[in-house]
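**Protein fold record**
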Amino acid sequence: MSEKFEDLLGVTLKSVVRESNERIVFTEESGKVWYMYHSQDCCESVTIDDIAGDLNDLVGTPIIRAEENSWNKNPEGVKVPEYQDSFTWTFYRIGTAKGTVVIRWYGESNGYYSESVDFGSGARA
């Protein structure tokens, strides 16, 4: 899976399902399935921290906005964990004519492991 989040531009989704705090499934009207997730490793954690907006606004209308941004500063108002060695916040903004949804992921590790979110289509165990 080597797609980019921006590849969703122009796509019309049939469904968007948050399966857990670690995975969202996007299904196109054509049947193609896209996954947003993290491949867990030893000493790190990457989870969905928040979803602002209604995922149903992304269904039935072409995607006109698909942006990914990451940084290593805590957003205002977020309770900082007691121990925070290395961390990455990743924001996904995805929109249609119906509205925009912002999916906020938080990744933390000891600094030697990935804190990134994976995105792509195809089979995912």
